[in-house]
Amino acid sequence: MDQPAAIPVLTGASPRKRLTVPVLAFGGILMAVNQTVVVPLLPDLPRLTGASAGAVSWTVTATLLSGAVLTPVLGRAGDMYGKRRVLLAALALMVVGSVMCALSSDIRVLIAARALSGAASAVVPLSISILRDELPPERRGSAVALMSSTVGIGAALGLPLAALIVQYADWHTMFWVTAGLGALGVTSVWWAVRESPVREPGRFDVPGALGLAAGLACLLLGVSQGGLWGWTSPRVLALFLGCVLTLGLWWWHQLRTERPLVDLRLVSRPSVGLSHVAALLTGFAFYANSLVTAQLVQAPEATGYGLGLSIVATGLVLLPGGLIMLLFSPVSARMSASRGPRVTLATGALVIGLGYVVRIVDSRDLWMIILGAAVVGTGTTLAYSALPTLILHAVPAGQTASANGVNVLMRTIGQATSSAVVAAVLVHHTSLLGGTPVPTLHGYLLAFGIAGAVALLASATALTIPGDRPSPGGPRRAGGRTRGARDEALEGA
After folding, report:
1. Are 325 and 28 in contact (CB under 8 A)?
2. Spatial CA neighbour of 76 closest among 401, 408, 410
3. Region of 482 on the Ramachandran plot (φ > 0 left; ψ -120 to 50 alpha; else beta)
4. How many helices (H) and strands (E) does the chain have?
5. Closest CA relative to residue 32, chosen from 157, 171, 177, 130
6. Are 69 and 212 in contact (CB under 8 A)?
7. Contacts of 100 (CB under 8 A, 6+ apart)
8. CB 208 within 8 A of CB 256
9. In this predicted model, what pLDDT tens digit does every residue of 101-145 receive, in sequence order?
């Protein structure tokens, strides 16, 4: 077994080794910032680019689609060819995409560049896999929890940062900033992170990658554009039908190829499959918080519930949730070590549901809005940090990046579905304000209620995952291995 060689001795470790975790966490924050920065620009992009509002929306959709497709593909490539190498490539593509956006105002170039930047979505699963290979068990839990939390931290930081830049500088400056930060991330990873010797050799499954890309593109395009095109329109129905047929053929191919892109037999294990289902539900519940809160606090005061906040102030409202994710990641790691990650996941999803109860009770006072959003952020920290730990315990070391890539993909599908559902709810619950339809407070509360119900379903799903409870001393068991390591040894046998 080559796994022990992948765990460095940290006593007297060089500065490079000591910076591995902070550098990888910085990369995760960059990924989330990159996904968020375009949001404050959306209302002004039609004027700035001369494009229609529908075309401008593709600057978000393209990133979502490419990220969903490339995350499992790059995860598998990392397992085969080296996680550090593929991580550097993903960050480099983000830099190239940012530079393209900074140099152009052509909407076609912007959409292509944002699609290129979507490759950064693979940063988190690749980094988690590197942490598994490089850290001893006693440090692994807290590092993985921090890595998982970077998604919320980066999103919370990215929105006010982008809003400030857009308000006080030329909008291209925002992309120069992300390009500079991305270049710093590439340099830091190249300097501080070593290549892991843990590999899963084999031939890359090109037909599997193309089939997954086509199926996911049909699914996420239909979900993201359904509200705009109409859920029963021929285009949307054709996309969903294409998704079913393409993924059906892809599933058949994966079960019959010697080296599949996604090991479906591994996914069929309850410990892995149910973790993916919980990830989808948690992604849905989490995303509704920031999506609905941003619209609610910016609603005009004349609605009777809106606060009329600027986009910068809106970002500051969401900022405490991101800071809480940073502070609570060690708590999540300790809870997973003592109670097991499935209990942490179930607890986190339950806390998310509690946060939505707070939102339903009072969504008029600013301090209650911040409190409710912070409670949802706390639950998200617990849930998101437990998900990769469940995967680490359930799959062999050589498939960590690809398995976590699929888990992140399921979160992305959950977020896309959440966006579509929230949009549909708000569109169907509107009133006229100065001749303009605006969502009603009832519509917002209904969206919170749906998200809370999904969070409770995620909690129930987590409790059905087969137990994985470490010993009281932490993740290391009496024999010196975690349960996941013991499973890996059995797989190798």
Report:
1. no
2. 401
3. beta
4. 20, 2
5. 157
6. yes
7. 109, 110, 112, 113, 116
8. no
9. 999 999 999 999 999 998 998 998 899 889 888 888 778 888 888
* Mean of pLDDT values over 371-383: 90
Q: By the 8 A CB rule, do 214 and 413 touch? A: no
Could you tell me if 76 and 204 are in contact, meaning their C-beta atoms sit under 8 angstroms apart? yes
Nearest to 34 by CA among 107, 127, 102, 125: 102
Rounded Cα gap, residues 144 and 441, in angstroms: 38
Residue with tokens 């509107």: 430
Q: Which residue has the tokens 């896309």?
A: 416
Query: Do 150 and 25 form a contact (C-beta atoms < 8 A)?
Result: yes
Cα 178-180-181 angle, rounded to 5 deg: 65
Give the orientation angle of helix 83-103 with respect to helix 123-134, to 10 degrees.
Answer: 150
Identify the three-state secondary structure at position 310: coil
CA distances from 151 to 29, 47, 147, 267, 384 (A): 6, 30, 8, 24, 9
Query: How does 106-127 read in b/e, with b if 16+ C-beta sit within 10 Å?
Result: ebeebbbbbbbbbbbbbbbbbb
What is the C-alpha separation between 180 and 161, in angstroms, rounded?
A: 14
Q: Return the pLDDT at 467.
A: 63
CB contact at 8 A, 375 and 139: no
Helix residue ranges per DSSP H, 12-82? 15-18, 20-36, 45-49, 53-56, 58-81
Q: Evaluate whether 394 touches 275 at the Cβ level (below 8 Å).
A: yes
Average pLDDT of the chain is: 83
Rounded CA gap, 19 and 23, in Å? 6
pTM of the model: 0.80
Of all residues in the chain, the percent with pLDDT exceeding 70 is 91
Residue 125 phi, psi dihedral angles, 5° rounding: -60, -35
Residue pointed to by tokens 């470490």: 470
